[in-house]
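We emphasize that the prediction below concerns an isolated chain of 80 residues; any contacts that depend on oligomerization or on bound cofactors are therefore not represented. The input was used exactly as deposited, without trimming of termini.
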Amino acid sequence: MHGAALAGAFDMVLTAANTIAAVAGPTLLLAVTFKHPTLINQPAIFEAWVTHTEGRRTFSRGQLVQAGVVTVEAEACSSP
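Result of the prediction step, given as a token string:
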């Protein structure tokens, strides 16, 4: 899977986690780490959670798991 597509997906997934936690806002920073290849023909699960807030800024993390292996990790900071 192309890294840019995964980065775009993480932007949406981490924003969804922020929305569920009622602290959503535009993404200020998104860091994506590609740990292993992510294959197109296998199921994959995105996981995301809010780690903490500092003032108006919200920090969240996520990962993509495929066949029990974390293939991608992401961190984001957003602010309303």
